[in-house]
Amino acid sequence: MNIIKNSILVSLIFPLYANVDYNFEIQPIFDNNCISCHIDGGTYFGGLDLSSYSEVMEGGNSGNVIVPFDYSNSLLWQHLNSNYMPPYGSGVYPLSTSQINLIAQWIDEGALFESNEIEGRWLPGGFGNTMYEFIDGLRYTYYCDDSNNACDSTYWDLLDTSNAIPNPNPYVVVGNTLSIDIFFGNVATYSLDYRCDGQVVDFYYDEDDFTEGLHSTMYRLGFDDFNNECLDTNPDDCSCTEEWNPVCGIDGNTYSNACYATCEYVVIAYEGECINNNECSLTTDDILGPYYFEDAPFRSVIAHANEPGQRLFISGNIKQNDCENSISGSLIEIWQANDEGCYGIVEDCDTGNPENDYFNLRGKFFSDVNGDYTLESILPGYYGSRPRHIHIKITTPDEEVLVSQLYFENDPYCENDQWCQDADDRIISLVEDEFGVNGEMNLIMNSSENGISLGDINFDGLINVQDIVLLVGIIIDDSMINDFQLFSGNINSDSNIDILDIVQLVNIILNN
């Protein structure tokens, strides 16, 4: 056994010049030596299926067996290195030293299917509380709900697709173009540009989009070489003209033209010089916390009339990343503790919830056609040593997501709270009147889309007979619809989709 270990260590000390090809070098090892046991979900062998790349990366009953860039902490390598596998009596010879070495090399290179391959796990911006996994034509989205905000590789490696949010997004890649269905047929298209041997990928807006330049950059989970020359943000071969056609970057800086912004890997927020450059910035994020549930009912009044506590009213506007234009139809999800600092569903609360509402102090609703919203609740109590806070999650129609928390002015617990300390843009000033306390909070999203128009059921930017047909089908078939269709189809704002909405839709079309 020491011979095997030493052989692997020696082989990894020296540079590995050729990238391992999973399809031609790794999968055949599994097919020829392991597949008799580890197939069809590996029901009797730790739930580990080695029949395809996606199954290998999915892992087994013990979680993920592959830790990209770290072969020594990968359960698969540990098992191969400490046992004769396949085991005696299986009728198959154990893996050779060279085969185990090759698997270790493949893992240490990032456990890729191909170098320039979108499949796998990616972190937007290289860190944060969101991870995307592209696998078998579906993109899964994960959120970090670690109460200590330890959203590192160790945390993500424990998750599998059962931990992702429901309804993954279908995608297809043709050449270097990725098309992804972000919600009910609304397809976004991006050009992919890989760097750092496939460990970093830039998503550029499609040339037909109104927005130009870089959309975002993602780093493969486990990538940590942020000093590598491949991350040079001003490549030598990037040359631009001196034409003055200014654009505003998402960083709040004005660039003389789109080329300069693109060469600096900056997302273009809008055309023209930046407005209120020193006053406007995106709303900052915060931890999700451990008590998020996505199935809360649609309502903007989340506290019943007889819920103990001081009544709270918050209003504001959901704005685009130019801090001027609004976004209609953004989904806003809210959850909070009661007056005594207790969270329903997950805790046994001794006070509050007189209506015995399972989703007490939880709800979701949309920003209206003007991007405005209003929330009615009660002032939350102190949860442990944390300041009063309200959890909020916003999803725009073009799938930009903000997970954050709202705090309140002059809270004595804020000074020593690691999250509230950095939340200057999310601290609400409250004014008291005979109804309770009132505050305002505008929320700036990383989106340049106007949102959804009432009546645009198929989200094609037009309101016509196709929307009538789709709306009639929804009503007759009583079919499931997504959240954004619920907004666009509820034209008369009565919280129901019925014949009255069809009448309204016909009137909209006739009057246009």
Can you tell me about this structure?
The protein has about 500 residues and is α+β, with helices and mostly antiparallel strands. The chain has four domains: about 1-110, no CATH class; about 120-230, no CATH class; about 310-445, Sandwich (Protocatechuate 3,4-Dioxygenase, subunit A), CATH 2.60.130; about 465-510, no CATH class. Helix content is about 20%, strand content about 20%. The chain has helices at about 1-15, 20-35, 55-60, 75-80, 95-110, 155, 260-265, 465-475, 485-490, 500-510; strands spanning about 120-125, 130-135, 140-145, 170-175, 175-185, 185-195, 200-205, 215-220, 245-250, 255, 270, 310-320, 330-335, 360-365, 370-380, 390-395, 400-410, 425-430, 430-435, 435-440, 445. The strands form four sheets. Strands 1-2-3-4-5-6-7-8 form an eight-stranded antiparallel β-barrel. Strands 12, 15, 19, 20 and 21 form a five-stranded mixed sheet that branches. Strands 14-13-16-17-18 form a five-stranded mixed sheet. A hairpin with a 2-residue loop joins strand 4 (about 170-175) and strand 5. The model is unreliable at about 1-15 (pLDDT under 50).
